[in-house]
Amino acid sequence: MADNQSAEWTAVCEKFRLAHELSEIESKKDPENNPFRSKYKARDLLKEIHCSLKKDFEEEGEVDNGADSESSHTVDGEPGNDFGKAYAGDSPAGLRVARLAVLQYHLGVNHIETEELSAGEEHLMTCMKLIDKCTTTRENVSLFIQARNQLGILWAGRDEIENAQGFLEIAESMYLLYMKEDGQPPLDLQDFFVPEGEESSQQEKTRRFEMAYTHTLYYLAQVYKNLQQFERAGQYCHSTLQRQLEYKQFVPLEWAINAATLSQYYITKTRYMEARHCLAAASVIATLAGEIPSEAAAKESEAEFEKREELLQKRAEIARCWIKYCLNLLQDAKKLLEDNVGELDSDRQEELKRARRNEEEEKEKGRKSAILFGSSDTFDSICSLEEKVSSMLPLEFEEARGIFLVGQGYVAQAKEYFEMDGHVTDHIEILQDHSALFKVLAFFEEDMERRCKMHKRRVDMLEPICKDLNAQYYLLICRQLQFELAETYYEMMDLKLAVADKQDQPDVHTIKKFNLLCSSSTRYYQMFLDSVRSPEGKFPEKLEDDLVRPALVAKFRVARLQSKLISSNPASQLENLSLSLESYKFVVQYCEENPEAKNVVETELELSVEMATLLPLKINRIKSTMASAN
After folding, report:
1. Residue 519 phi, psi (nearest 5)
2. N or C: fewer beta carbons within 10 Å in the chain?
3. Residue 248, Cβ neighbours under 10 Å: how many?
């Protein structure tokens, strides 16, 4: 091969440039009936370059391919690995072998992209064999890493996760070692085939090298997730997102969705400061995708319509992640603050307030420096958005209300895209989250009448949907709504009962309201139980595992509600108590016939056994009173 300034070498470089253009640009225009046309053309050019280089290599005798000695063996027709003994990275022989390895790498990627995975693996392994015994230098470190990245992706695609992990972890360690020992911008794969003087700038070399390592971290995040090493997966995902922003290697909407998704992992670990930062960054970076086209523009242009739909959908998905953030923050606070009957424990509340004053502020400062996203042009916007909602568990009503209002704002935003018409399941899930926000806010409210009004808001938003939804197509959702409405009316009944207990003698209006709440709760519990019956109306002898607890709880609650109904008519009292006894007995009998259910409804069963003993005595007293009156 002529030197780097010859016309022959310029022709080789032009051929390589054309192969790259075909593969990366022209292939996107290929027709559906011939999707790999440009990739195949690129492959032919790469093979031509490879044959030419290999022929020159052999003619000049830099490695004796025909020899039998170990020091000059060949691999798949390639020069032997032992060239590495004399190759420090920039010798003529070493450079030519490195170029052959680069071509093997590109041929491997080409075959993988055209769905010829075995052939792709062979080329990548040949690339690895050519360079594996070399010293890691500026000339080959990027190739080392990118070849292993590709093999990691390949094995992950085959569900051979441990194999993928091995390749990727070596790539990671190579990067870290190189940065420790050298750290200068290494040669990029494209720079092996450019005329002298046209190499990439130092800045561009750095950008491409860092991009290769970012890909390593991204793929390792997926590997660790598949291995269920979720803590490591989260760390690698966070690092990937940080680097993508730092080196400006991201597509705004894609980055934003990944950051929002990562926030949901942090929420499961109750790491709300990290979750909030991910969500704030997601919201800010999503705006970099541009303005949402108007409806008029979307009607006139298909491209504008698609852009509008994508922007609305992704931003609504991020809004839903914000809703989950607010809801989980409130719910976790509730778990910390509630006593054994589900009410706010004031002693515990004061204890946590004191602990927060002493610890939380310092802890937040220490952790925050490690998680920051953004650059100078986005950092302020991210911080500003973070300040609108707390990342600390609320300990009193006003703090909880602030988080609730943020969550409610995102509910409105999410519903703009996920409308009932066209997005039934998503729309209802958002309404359920909205209802859950009201439910947990009510926990922090001391005034019982105001708490009752919050639960009434839940009824108002869910009841119309429940009535209109077709159970034949949405059975699971209907059951969820029926049970939630039953529980909501049940909580309202308990609150009214607590208010009534404070009165010497409840008035007629209070009694009527109380009975209405009991009846409404019973009705929805009964609708839920009826949905479990067979088409012939028979209740199953053995419930499905996921229905055991809700069905038995529904029966228990129906029993309690029927016994609570207030009536001045002894005959009505007798009827209500008899129905209540029947429901209590059902719970007891089911658990006797299905012992595995006992642990699922331990408390309800204990109370049902007790009431099944006590209620007959009460029923007999009423009967005796009625008999005496007659």
Report:
1. -65, -40
2. C
3. 9
pLDDT 10s digits, 406-432:
999 999 999 999 999 999 999 999 999
**SS3 per-residue string spanning 42-68:** HHHHHHHHHHHHHHHHHHCCCCCCCCC
- The count of C-alpha atoms lying within 13 angstroms of the C-alpha of 430, restricted to the half-sphere facing its C-beta, is 26
Cα–Cα distance, 26 to 38 (Å, whole number):
6
Question: 405: buried, middle or exposed (CB in 10 Å: 19+, 13-18, 0-12)?
Answer: middle
Beta-bridge partners for 78 = 75
Q: Report which DSSP code applies to 375.
A: -
- CA angle in degrees (0–180, nearest 5) for 404-410-416: 140
> How much is the mean pLDDT over the chain?
89
Pairwise CA distance, residues 146 & 140, whole Å: 10
Annotate 132-171 with b (16+ C-beta within 10 A) or e (fewer): eebebbbbbbbbbbbbbbbbbbbbbeeeebebbbbbbebb
| Tens of pLDDT, residues 82-119 | 444 434 445 666 788 889 999 999 999 999 999 999 99
Q: In angstroms, rounded to a whole number, what is the distance separating the alpha carbons of residues 487 and 521?
A: 7
Residue 67 pLDDT grade (very low, low, confident, very high; cuts 50, 70, 90): very low
Mean pLDDT of all residues in 373-391: 87
Q: Residue 407: what residue type?
A: G
Q: Give, as one character, the DSSP assignment of residue 568.
A: S
Residues composing the chain: 630
What CA–CA distance (Å, rounded) separates 215 from 290? 26
Measured distance CA(563)–CA(576) in Å, rounded:
6
At 528, is the pLDDT very low, low, confident or very high (cuts 50, 70, 90)?
A: very high
Backbone torsions φ then ψ of 339, nearest 5 degrees? -90, -170
- Distance between CA atoms of residues 451 and 267, nearest Å: 27
Asked whether the predicted pLDDT for residue 56 surpasses 90, the reply is no
Residue 435 burial (CB count, 10 A): 23
Judge whether 524 and 486 are in contact, CB under 8 Å.
yes
* Residue owning tokens 């207030």: 566
Q: What phi and psi, each to the nearest 5 degrees, are found at residue 535?
A: -55, -25
Residue ranges of alpha helices (H) inside 418-544 are 424-444, 448-468, 475-501, 508-532
7-249 CATH, one of 3.30.565.10, 2.60.210.10, 1.25.40.10, 1.10.10.60: 1.25.40.10
Phi/psi for 64 (5° steps) reads -85, 95
3-state SS, residue 540: coil
φ/ψ of 75, rounded to 5, equals: -125, 110
Domain definitions of the chain by residue range: 7-249, 250-346+360-446, 561-630
CA-CA distance, 224 to 219, in Å (whole number)? 9
Instruction: Please say whether the beta carbons of 136 and 177 come within 8 A.
Output: yes
Note the maximum CA span of the chain: 123
| DSSP codes, 156-191 | HHTT-HHHHHHHHHHHHHHHHHHHHHT-SPPPPGGG
Side-chain half-sphere CA neighbours of 487 within 13 A: 14
Mind listing the pLDDT tens digit for each residue in 566-598? 998 999 999 999 999 999 999 999 999 999 999
